[in-house]
Amino acid sequence: MSDDGRAALERAYAHALGFDEARRSRSPNVLAGVEALRAALDGPTPEQGTSAAVVIDNLIRGAEPGVMGTTGGRFFGWVIGASHPAGVAADWLTSLWGQNGGSFYAAPANAVAEQVAARWLLDLLGLPPESSVGFTTGATMANFVCLAAARNKLLREAGWDVEADGLHGAPPLRVCIGDDAHATVFSALRYLGLGYRRVTRVATDAAGRMDASALSDALSGELGPLVVIAQAGQINTGAFDPFDEIAELTHECGGWVHVDGAFGLWARTCPERAALAAGAEKADSWATDGHKWLQTPYDCGYAIVRDAQAHREAMTVGASYLPTTGEDIRDPLHFAPELSRRARGFATWTMLRVLGREGIAAMVGRHCALARRMADRLAAESGIEVLNDVELNQFVVRFGAAAGSPEEGDALTKAVIARTQAAGVCYVGGGSWRERWVMRVSVISWPTTEADVDMSTDSIIAAWREVNERGVG
């Protein structure tokens, strides 16, 4: 390695340690706007190279003001894990090792790490041990992989080879999905040529759970090939669909049940919360993330399929220059769509070893308790309403409970979110829930403590009192 290359690595390392040490004290919001970031990072197309160490210094100086504090203890804006240092260390090695994780022969150590980590994941999540696991960029692609396996197998059983003949002229594939499913599931359906408008949307309850009786009505009559998509952890409320009933109804029709469990599936690792996801093991496939509750660095997701053969047939990449492996070797190219991809097995293996069963369970339980603590304190303040039972780590808040109109409540809620973000103590986001604007709170960062929650709650209440007193103007 050149002196310049070593200096670049050393500067990045020193800065990363300083960034980690400041994660508890730095603002969770960005410090620079888009114009400042452009001024720092933009410029003419480079004609000549620059010292790597100098470029790293420039990158740090220009980019860090625009880095969100997602790795700190007071970031509640989205369901984003906090990149545990152990996973980051494994990820550094992954980058330096430069392995292409798509193939066993290109990265044998990663393939074995994936195989071991996959077995551990199935055990921890209480899923069928015969299932196969593909390491993906995240739950969006994990949903894509699982639904591809479902689509191909169901159409093959109907006498159609989608691998060879595509979808033109294929028997129709019916997809039923809860009305409050996550947007990325609809994206996966689009990518697979199944269309997001062609799905049957099933009614949900006040918390976003699929109504089993409504699903039963939707499944009456002639169906043909069928996929039902259930949800473990609704993105606003953390609610879980009734998996036992969904599985029974779907399997009676010969259908495939897929569970989108990007974060909620991890409830199965925690004895106090596992009952929320009871029955999920009866599904045929599952999608979840490592970069949420497992706290791996971005990006990392897992596509889990009970029928390993269906999984392989949907994903396998073949070419004459790719050596074939024996049955005793797990080759990653059979289980995820990208042939060239990051060696995600190392970070996952590391975090599972570092946390273990007890550590993961304790973290999930602690985050759920902290979410309840935060919600209870907010709900005790006059004019603030928590709109869901806090069963997991997610809740939504509405401000101006006595507002004269829903529109006034929307304006008050948006104003409180803006003032909370401007205060810089914590980061919360907003969104629409039941056609009303709400503050969304997600507690899922490993560094978050009671002190972080209490400080953040005080800041939100202060923002509400200020807005309530001065108005939204």
TrEMBL record:
Entry's transmembrane regions: none
Cofactor(s) required for function per UniProt: pyridoxal 5'-phosphate
Leader peptide range in chain numbering: none
Gene Ontology molecular function terms on file: transaminase activity
Key words of the record: Aminotransferase, Decarboxylase, Lyase, Pyridoxal phosphate, Transferase
SUPFAM superfamilies registered for this protein in UniProt: PLP-dependent transferases
Family: Belongs to the group II decarboxylase family.
Protein name as catalogued: Aspartate aminotransferase family protein
